[in-house]
Design goal:
single chain, Aminopeptidase, 8-stranded mixed beta sheet, 10 strands, 32% helix, globular, metal-binding
């Protein structure tokens, strides 16, 4: 067995400094447009929903407005559903699934629950199809006080007034082949640690909150998504991405402790979706539809079990 080639930036076993981060950043190129793909869609929704700018990302020479979509006629007497996408900018269906949910289904919940949707939390990374922000920081490990990530800090400020009133939070993600081919090796190189290959699951799965598991909630989502795309099986060790499978298609993480987006509120019902867009059994349209099905099932379950 041959050893994998070392990551092209840095020295194996030595964590990156400013020079290595700058070299990494210089290699990232814009591949798609946040303005064309996301902002233009949100603009078309302004006649039906409130749109708030909750911050701006500053990565000179680039500036990105951070936008969230809110129910028109917000009612503080109602519970709140939070939907987040694009925490990792390369996870395309999270962004477009969130927007598709608003376009096609948000009106169904008018007068029943407040909706707050942040569809693209990391627009710099969205444009470059990357996991990290421009400082080689993973926003989805940065939802904590004094966050080093602009993206995470901005969302936390937006949610501060309502975080204890959120009933359900669905954080939309993907697990892709590039997790193994690019992002895991880059992480090991950045942190000066050994590169330890893993296995990409083929199919959709969920991450529950280990501190407050809600198995029936998670299974309601799995059942809805199974009508759209296939559910990831456990590997030979009974795991998905190194974590024990606690129910079909479900693993658990310590969401708050790990600084993950799904742990940002005190919601009773929380989940992180993981779609597998590289599967030969799934199309981009199916991936978007799976995200939409997950959001709808999550909100429906939460409303029925308040």
């Amino acid at each position: 067995m041959t050893n994998p080639s070392p990551y092209p930036i840095g020295t194996p076993g030595v964590a990156w400094g400013d020079a290595e981060r700058a070299e990494w950043r210089s290699r990232q190129t814009r591949k798609r447009s946040y303005a064309a793909d996301v902002l233009s869609v949100i603009d078309q929704l302004r006649s039906r929903y409130d749109v708030v700018e909750y911050g701006q990302l500053e990565y000179p020479p680039d500036t990105y407005p951070l936008l969230a979509i809110k129910s028109n006629g917000w009612n503080d007497a109602l519970p709140t559903a939070l939907v987040t996408g694009g925490v990792h900018g390369y996870e395309t269906s999270g962004v477009h699934g969130a927007l598709q949910f608003v376009e096609q289904h948000a009106a169904d919940y008018a007068g029943r629950i407040n909706l707050l949707v942040a569809p693209c939390i990391s627009p710099w990374a969205y444009e470059r199809i990357h996991r990290w922000n421009a400082n080689a920081i993973d926003p989805n490990r940065s939802f904590r006080d004094d966050s080093p990530a602009q993206e995470s800090a901005a969302l936390m400020r937006l949610l501060a007034p309502v975080r204890d009133r959120v009933l359900v939070h669905v954080d939309l993600h993907e697990t892709t082949d590039t997790d193994e081919s690019e992002f895991r090796p880059a992480l090991a190189a950045r942190d000066g640690k050994p590169d330890e290959p893993g296995e990409i699951p083929d199919g959709f799965y969920l991450v529950d909150d280990a501190a407050n598991p809600q198995p029936e909630f998670q299974q309601a989502i799995i059942a809805a998504v199974a009508k759209v795309t296939h559910i990831a099986p456990a590997d030979a060790n009974g795991q998905i991405i190194g974590s024990p499978v606690v129910a079909p298609g479900v693993i658990e993480y310590a969401l708050k402790q790990l600084g993950l987006c799904a742990g940002i509120t005190d919601a009773r019902y929380k989940t992180t979706t993981e779609v597998y867009p590289d599967s030969p059994r799934a199309t981009p349209a199916q991936c978007n539809a799976a995200q939409v099905a997950a959001v709808r099932a999550a909100i429906d379950y939460a409303l029925a079990h308040q």
